[in-house]
Design brief:
The complex is a heterodimer of chains A (about 120) and B (about 290). Chain A is an all-alpha fold and about 120 residues long. Chain A folds into two domains: about 5-90, Fumarate Reductase Iron-sulfur Protein, Chain B, domain 2, CATH 1.10.1060.10; about 100-125, no CATH class. Chain A has helices at about 5-10, 25-30, 40-45, 60, 65-70, 80-90, 110-120. The longest helix of chain A is centred in the last third of the chain and has 13 residues, at about 80-90. Chain B has helices at about 10, 15-30, 55-75, 85-100, 100-110, 125-130, 135-140, 175-185, 205, 210-225, 235-245, 260-265, 275-285, and strands at about 1-5, 30-35, 75-80, 120-125, 150, 190, 230, 255-260. The model of chain B has no long low-confidence stretch (mean pLDDT about 95). Chain B has two domains: about 1-125, Up-down Bundle (Glutathione S-transferase Yfyf (Class Pi), Chain A, domain 2), CATH 1.20.1050; about 140-290, 3-Layer(aba) Sandwich (Rossmann fold). Chain B is built from 13 helices and eight strands. Classes of the chains: A mainly alpha (about 120), B alpha/beta (about 290). At the A-B interface, helix 1, helix 5, helix 6 and helix 7 of A face helix 9, helix 10 and helix 11 of B.
């Protein structure tokens, strides 16, 4: 197993080599219009140890709705793999995806939304 | 029936009508909700990282308070209303039941509270109603909502993921529990293909365009099925769908309300709907006699 795949496994307990790239996750994903790379393509990048997987916007667009995880014929938790890719970046020293102080209309937003965003985008 | 109750932040701040209508309905149904003392934030979204249990701690602290209160009143059932809270609490509780090392880890870390013994059962209010029985519920209805077409919206958190096994309250691909509730209160459920689709979740904070893209599709689907209202179990979905409505023309909007509000209305207790909304529904179901 390559180092990147190993790291993904460490964080998410998912083995990307189980994936045979059928594309079912990407077919069911409701957010692909916003993604520069499809979810199964990102998994293929991890299989090939292409660090570009971490630079694609795919994992950040993923909203953890788990449709992919429910439908994967190989039983992979694809959403957890996306979380692992986010976590690898978030845990990098000096990395910052968002600035919580710069939320627009913070008074209008429900705290549930802000807390959820903070959970997914920050350490 | 006495059960423990975990409210979560949205029911106390953003959408008090969700909680108030539930209390009103529960009183009528003989369900006594006992609020967990000093509950705290569940974390909203479950952490999917298996190497970091820190994010489970919020849920566990509430479990400990629930466990102690449960001993007093003699129950281990914790009911939640918010689907986000349900998902996190259910998931964390199952992880603690299944993984002794994680349980030990969090118990060792939390040294200012008693240890958590994972014997609580986390139940969503919809399943509590299902356990009471929709037939029995039907007998208690005083205002059957005949003629009202209701789009049952589930969102994600009640149905997915199915790991650990036991998180979904119903079939993840074709749930029916909200439809059954709708039928039991006399209304008609809309065949609604977008009922399990995601509203865009927390993207409302930094990428509201994503939420608008999602919610327009969901509302449009409900609209094309001629739904009078969308029934939501989730505060964040409700916020996002209402945001989506604001971006649409009035003729394309479908109002979004909580399932407990419609339940309360049909039980003849205070629904905590806006007067306008309540009148609109009452008018729809049978004329002016209720208005």
């Amino acid at each position: 197993m390559n180092e990147l795949a190993e790291r993904v496994k460490e964080i998410s307990d998912q083995n990307v080599y189980s994936c045979y790239l059928c594309g079912n996750c990407s077919a069911g994903c409701m957010f692909t219009d916003e993604m520069d790379t499809l979810p199964h393509q990102v998994i293929a990048l991890v299989q090939m140890e292409d660090k570009d997987a971490l630079e694609k916007n795919t994992s950040w667009i993923c909203a953890s709705c788990f449709v992919c995880s429910v439908r994967c014929p190989r039983g992979l938790d694809v959403a957890a793999i996306m979380e692992a890719l986010r976590e690898i970046k978030i845990r990098e020293r000096g990395f910052r995806k968002i600035d919580l102080r710069k939320i627009k209309d913070i008074e209008k937003l429900p705290q549930i939304a802000i807390t959820a965003a903070a959970q997914k985008f920050t350490w | 029936m006495e059960v423990l109750y975990y409210p979560g932040c949205s029911l106390k701040n953003t959408y008090p009508e969700f909680e108030k209508s539930t209390y009103a309905a529960c009183e009528k149904l003989g369900i006594n909700l006992v609020e967990i003392p000093e509950w705290n934030c569940c974390g909203v979204v479950p952490s999917l990282a298996t190497d970091n249990v820190m994010r489970h701690l919020g849920a566990v602290r509430s479990f400990i308070n629930a466990q102690e209160k449960g001993k007093e009143i003699g129950t281990n059932v914790v009911v939640t209303l918010c689907s986000m809270c349900y998902n996190v609490l259910k998931r964390v509780n199952l992880i603690l039941k299944e993984q002794a090392d994680v349980l030990k880890n969090v118990n060792d870390f939390i040294d200012d509270q008693p240890d958590y013994v994972p014997e609580l059962e986390i139940v969503h209010f919809l399943n509590l109603l299902k356990n009471v029985g929709f037939d029995k519920l039907k007998e208690r209805i005083v205002i059957p909502l005949r003629g009202l077409k209701v789009a049952p919206y589930y969102g994600c958190a009640l149905l997915r993921p199915d790991r650990p096994k036991g998180v979904p309250i119903d079939d993840p691909e074709n749930p029916t529990v909200i439809e059954n509730l709708i039928r039991s209160i006399g209304a008609e459920p809309a065949e609604f293909p977008f009922k399990t689709e995601c509203c865009g979740n927390y993207h409302i904070v930094f990428e509201p365009g994503i939420v608008e893209m999602r919610t327009k599709k969901i509302i449009g689907s409900a609209r094309s099925e001629k739904a009078d209202v969308i029934l939501s179990p989730c505060p964040l979905c409700t916020y996002n769908l209402q945001h989506g409505n604001e971006t649409l023309d009035r003729s394309e909007q479908v109002p979004v309300i909580f399932f407990t509000q419609l339940l309360a209305l049909s039980l003849g207790v205070k629904s905590h709907l806006s007067t306008e909304m309540e009148n609109q529904i009452l008018k729809k179901i049978g004329g002016e006699k209720f208005v």
